[in-house]
Design the sequence.
């Protein structure tokens, strides 16, 4: 059920409670009027017409007072109904906090790749489907996006939040668009990309790529550019060929020597078809990288700091659910995928593989004494420095202003997420 539908249901329930309260007050007023009428009848049996007149005037005054009391009672019941409506809508938080979050309006979040079960996407879908945003009175509109383009959408104000493929990508968006994008969470503490090598390849390190033919889809991912630079070779020492499509089987059949891939995607296709390969993984070479980086703008944080903090809290809760319930998380993703007509032709089995690989990397590399998702500034700084070495940035950008650790840190008590009302 959407947040708007739940708010309407809450309003109906609150209205019913208000009517009941008003009905209770009317019964009390009726009892007082009956007692007054009995007293007047007894007096009229012993009084003159003049006395009856005086008592009629008194009865009129009492009726006016009773009417005023009824109006006050009605106002009190109306106020009670409004408070009931707000607290019923979001039992996890108080009415003031609920209203503040509602006042922020609809918050558009653009995903990194359709509604795939990937880090940076799976957790917001799960948080929405499991009612986390409803409990915090936040109206989130999740839109399918493409990570490299998301930064421009947020910079231009077409969306308020989004997902970057890596911190390096976010910084590149800021540098290119003079933006104020800020990472608020940092899920993956390594690269999600790697290079597939055909069976029998003599390439054993990134430095061995010189003299080989590398297939490229668009461009070499930032993490692989860093791996090449840190290996001591120039990117120009190997030949690149631009590839069409995303079929790794067809790509390898072209005779290329190396294929950049997502560890959570193409290897699954190759394994399912029994095609042998080896993987050149930046993680094994200590290349500083990241993946799954939710972000917003500094302007939005400045305007709605508490709301952004609550969104971050909900995203962490969504991640916890998705990590513990991978099949349910993928089912939630496919509710949106199917509703949109599945233009990317995603399959449940493949998305289970994707989320399995990425969530395992997140869990395995998360420090034991740090809440999951809190940005690691030392690692992110090293990632940006590697981008300078790779020639992506001519000089070191002011990357420190592009990450906020306080929002995620404040959501935790140690390594335990603090959820309102729990």
Sequence:
């Amino acid at each position: 059920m959407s947040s708007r539908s739940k708010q309407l249901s809450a309003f109906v329930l609150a209205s019913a409670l208000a009517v009941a309260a008003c009905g209770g007050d009317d019964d009390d007023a009726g009892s007082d009027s009956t007692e007054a009428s009995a007293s007047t009848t007894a007096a009229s049996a012993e009084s003159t017409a003049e006395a009856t007149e005086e008592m009629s005037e008194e009865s009129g005054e009492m009726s006016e007072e009773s009417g005023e009391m009824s109006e006050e009672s009605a106002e009190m019941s109306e106020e009670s109904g409004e408070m009931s409506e707000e607290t019923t809508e979001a039992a996890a938080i108080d009415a003031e906090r609920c209203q503040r979050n509602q006042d922020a309006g609809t918050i558009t979040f653009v995903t990194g790749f359709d509604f795939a079960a990937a880090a940076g996407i799976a957790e917001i879908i799960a948080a929405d489907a499991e009612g986390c945003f409803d409990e915090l009175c936040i109206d989130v509109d999740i839109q399918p996006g493409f990570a490299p383009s998301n930064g421009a959408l947020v910079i231009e104000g077409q969306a308020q939040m989004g997902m970057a493929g890596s911190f390096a990508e976010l910084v590149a968006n800021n540098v290119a668009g003079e933006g104020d994008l800020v990472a608020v969470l940092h899920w993956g503490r390594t690269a999600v990309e790697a290079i597939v090598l055909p069976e029998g390849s003599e390439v054993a390190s990134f430095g061995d790529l010189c003299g080989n033919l590398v297939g490229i889809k668009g461009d070499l991912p930032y993490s692989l550019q860093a791996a090449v630079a840190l290996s001591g070779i120039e990117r120009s020492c190997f030949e690149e060929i631009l590839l069409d499509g995303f079929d790794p089987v067809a790509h390898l059949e072209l005779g290329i020597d190396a294929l950049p891939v997502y560890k959570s995607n193409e290897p699954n296709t190759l394994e399912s078809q029994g095609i042998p390969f080896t993987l050149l993984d930046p993680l094994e070479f200590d290349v500083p990288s990241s993946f799954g980086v939710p972000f917003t703008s500094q302007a939005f944080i400045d305007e709605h700091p508490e709301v952004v903090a609550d969104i971050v809290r909900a995203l962490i809760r969504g991640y916890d659910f998705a990590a513990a319930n991978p099949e349910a998380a993928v089912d939630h993703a496919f509710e949106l995928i199917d509703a949109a007509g599945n233009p990317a032709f995603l399959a449940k089995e493949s998305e289970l593989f994707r989320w399995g690989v990425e969530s395992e990397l997140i869990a395995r590399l998360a420090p034991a004494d740090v809440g999951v998702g809190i940005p690691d500034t030392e690692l992110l700084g090293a990632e940006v420095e590697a981008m300078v070495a790779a020639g992506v940035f001519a000089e070191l950008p002011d990357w420190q202003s592009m990450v906020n650790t306080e929002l995620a840190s404040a959501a935790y008590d140690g390594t335990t997420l603090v959820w309102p009302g729990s």
Notes: Residues 1-91 have pLDDT under 50 and may be disordered.
